[in-house]
Amino acid sequence: MPRRHPVGLYVLFFTEMWERFGFYAMSALFALYMDDKNNPHSLLRDNQALILGSYLGLVYFTPFFGGIIADRWLGYRLSVVIGGLLLALGYFLLAWSPLPAFFGGLLLIVLGNGLFKPNISTMVGREYPPQDVRLDSAYTIFYMGINVGALAAPLMAGPLIRYFRYDEFDGYYAGFIAAGIGMLISVAVFVTCLRWLTGSDGPTRLPGSPQDEVVPPDVQWRRHVALLIIFAVVILFWMAFKQNAGTFNFWFRDHTIRTPKPWLRDLLDALRLDRLFIDREGDFNKTLQSAINPFFVILFSPFYNWFWARLRSRGVEPTTPTKVAMGMLLTSGAFALLALGGLSGGNTGRVSGAWLVSAYAILTLGELSLSPMGLSLVSKLAAPRQRSMWMGGWFVATSVGGLLSGAAIGRFWSTKEWPHWDVPHSSFFAFLACSSLIAFAVMLAFLRLVNRAMPAKK
Fold first, then answer.
1. Average of pLDDT values for 80-106?
2. How far apart are CA 359 and CA 337, in angstroms?
3. Within a domain: residue 48?
4. Domain count of the chain?
5. Do 429 and 339 form a contact (C-beta atoms < 8 A)?
6. What pLDDT does 32 receive?
7. CA–CA distance, 338 with 120 (Å, rounded to integer)
8. Which domain holds residue 380?
């Protein structure tokens, strides 16, 4: 019978929750900050898609090197602390208006995330014996922590923009400062709760930590090939999913009806929640769309854990790679729905917010089938002494997808970036639906090979 999860999982849960609060507070404001008409830096306004895509590419690329540094020299714990402090300093620099401070802050965020992200994720798997059946569930719980922070961040960002003199552009800076404070809380939680972490720490081993599995070289080689196949496929997922940091903001701002119904406005007033959700113009806050996805993650995660456990008890739980394939199919469906929303009027006017909310619900089901499962796959398949490096490889795939999402694909959203193109928004979303469907087909083609590389459950 599966045992309870170790206390260390919840330490890592809250550490990641506060780190993601800072990260998504910054992300909720980032594209809007650069695109805002009051932004004093024309360089940012004119190149926002390129800057966003490059940032998303780099911030998820450096974890590969951060993983190597932790595996070989620093260990996971010190890497997390150093990375967290660099992230906090980077957010604080964004709150300083000179352009060099902006790019310096982005550089520190990229470096800090490189040290923090792969190692906190690897530490989750290190709390469990090899091939423990609780791993998929553990990473889903951990992923829930990510999204608790991600949900709180945009709800905070809207009121900050509203109450810190938005006309003078100060609200964005207040949001970046809040992101830095959240990151400092994350580091404080981690440092004060170190005694509850029992997993091994990279190059050194702690007394009582689970022993690593001894794997023959030919078997380990097949497992690494399986990971590379997964990494290649999920690039297309992240290319689509990372639109939530860019074009989804503009779709919500420019092509979604944001004025609440009178009954809803009265309800929010009665509950004193209008400051959280409503801006000065009486519309829903522009940052609110960033809260939809984490809300659904928190809502659906307990159901997913229950559902997989039920299937496991009956001996019919899908393999982790099969869950990844399911995620790609659901992602395709979400963007197909958005394409229909574009055809219904979003190409030229505004449509009901139900299109975006419904698409987010499907996309979140796809995300839960894929993203925490990818983290679990790395823990199951990567060589123990290289696990953080391979976890960084997972984030490199995220990096490439993020780069494509903005610098390549995202630029077609705006005709000012590509004046010789006129891409309707329905066609933009339909392209992403097709690319996700292609990824699903590729995953199916390699599914048997990947499944054969999976170790036996314990």
1. 91
2. 6
3. yes
4. 1
5. yes
6. 78
7. 34
8. 7-198+216-453
Residue with tokens 């891409």: 423
pLDDT digits (tens, 9 = 90+) for 205-246: 444 555 566 778 888 999 999 999 999 999 999 999 988 877
Reported confidence tier of residue 444, pLDDT bands at 50, 70, 90: very high
CA–chain centroid gap for 266, Å, is 34
The pLDDT of residue 138 is above 90: no
CB 301 within 8 A of CB 143: yes
Rounded CA separation 221/227 (Å): 10
Average pLDDT on 120-136 reads 84
**Cα dihedral value 241, 224, 206, 86, nearest 10:** -40
Helix %, strand %, coil % of the chain (to 5):
75, 0, 20
The answer to whether residue 88 is domain-embedded is yes
Which residues on neighbouring strands pair with residue 204, listed in sequence order?
201
Given this model, what pLDDT does residue 207 score? 47
Q: For residue 433, what is the domain's CATH number? A: 1.20.1250.20
CA-CA distance, 170 to 167, in Å (whole number)?
A: 8
- CA distances for 59 relative to 154, 212, 286, 347, 455, angstroms: 20, 30, 24, 31, 31
What is the separation, in whole angstroms, between the first and last Cα of the chain? 10
37 has a pLDDT exceeding 80: no
Contacts of 200 (CB under 8 A, 6+ apart): 126, 206, 209, 210, 212
Tokens, residue 285: 């806050």
The confidence band for 170, taking pLDDT boundaries of 50, 70 and 90, is: low
In a domain? residue 208: no
- Give 256's DSSP letter: B
Q: What is the spatial distance between Cα 399 and Cα 393, in angstroms, rounded to a whole number?
A: 9
Residue 210 resides in a domain: no
Cα–Cα distance measured from residue 210 to residue 197, given in angstroms and rounded to the nearest whole number:
12
